[in-house]
Amino acid sequence: MIVTTEAFAxxxxxxxxxxxxxxxxxALxALxALxALTLPASAADQWFKxxxxxxxxxxxxxxxxxxxxxxxxxxGYQFLALTDHNIIHANExxxxxxxxxxxxxxxxxxxxxxxxxxxxxxxxxxxxLDGNTEVRLRKLEEYRPLFEKPGQFxxxxxxxxxxxxxxxxxxxxxxxxxxxxxxATGTSIADTLRANLLAILAHxxxxxxxxxxxxxxxxxxxxxxxxxxxxxxxxxxxxxYNGHPMINYEGDEHRAGNEKIWDIVNxxxxxxxxxxxxxxxxxxxxxxxxxxxxxxxRGWVMVRSPALDAASIIKSMRAGDFYAxxxxxxxELQVSGKTLRARIHAEPGVTYTxxxxxxxxxxxxxxxxxxxxxDKVHPTRTTYSSDVGKTFATIEGTEVNxxxxxxxxxLRAVITSSKPHPNPTYAKQxxxxxxxxxxxxxxx
Length: 444
Prior knowledge:
Elements: H1 4-20, H2 24-37, E1 46-51, H3 65-73, E2 79-82, E3 93-96, H4 97-102, H5 111-119, E4 126-129, E5 132-137, H6 140-147, E6 154-165, E7 168-175, H7 189-207, E8 212-215, H8 226-231, E9 237-242, H9 258-272, E10 279-283, E11 300-305, H10 310-318, E12 322-325, E13 330-336, E14 339-344, E15 352-360, E16 367-371, E17 380-384, E18 390-396, E19 399-402, E20 408-420, E21 430-438
Parallel strand pairs: 1-2, 2-6, 9-10
Antiparallel strand pairs: 1-11, 3-5, 4-5, 6-7, 7-8, 11-12, 12-21, 13-14, 14-19, 15-18, 15-20, 16-17, 20-21
């Protein structure tokens, strides 16, 4: 496990936060998980690669769920969540071939032709209606047996809850939901985010099944500020990297990129709100599977878990026993007390730089307000000092061994390789990995 003492501390912080929010039943469930996290990690624990943000023809993707699942299952992934907007793959849905083919921009065989060639004419169900040929979209319960193998590949039912406040899109992925969860409304962006997360927590409690929710692409349409994210303590995960080319990963002159968002949120939570830091995932958010722009294979999570099932994967992620990646792989990852040890899997001719990032205790908390021209949702933004997300150390090479020499609110690590990303979403992108916060200040 990424470290039993840190897992205990993180779970303790979440437990206290839940109790402060008067979510006592959920807090009791968290306590049971907390006790389990103090046990030694099993020698059988292994790393599982997965993607938690993927679209298909069921919403705004451009290929069948079987084709999308096949892409991941044959390329080294062990688990996958198909997260279509406000829908789960459980209804009776037919789609015209004209509508299917209209979504693809590539030349060559049609989407239906490729689908039929891969799974056979007996699998592809069609009908004629009002002069149009329609294809039935298979349900999860139908195509799941084609792919799932114990210990090898897992499909987790999921959904992208796509809510909004005014013009701001507020999208949250929920993994392992047992039924469809409709978007909740709120009185502000933060309140809408909280309302949806509370609905997920209520569904988790009523179903008795563990679930994981993560906030998607906060900079999509510049929708959500770091301050809004920080105040919603029910939000424990967000996307540090999303492979869609329209999510403004790098930010701009006045609006923080995803890296800075993470540091602002974790500084506010640990210093001001006395809450634990937010954890981060990397995802594809893939929509296109015929060579177009929003394609698969750009970002994923590596989860250390004793078993390949939804409950075990979610439990490990809640404990912070995972890292996010856009290409860099770790051979070893361990935290003991405040010391981080990691060994990066070396590729020939590739160099690696690890930055240890965090915010010191007693940081410069001065802020400034800047106007953002043309932003109707957030016409002003708050900027922070360089102490927020300060680089404490830069380590070259594949061996990382770091212990802080000063008091910190939290630390995290980001690894950047010299290898260009094979399918980049922004200029000069190279492969990276993000290690979850550790050595964080205890909440009170």
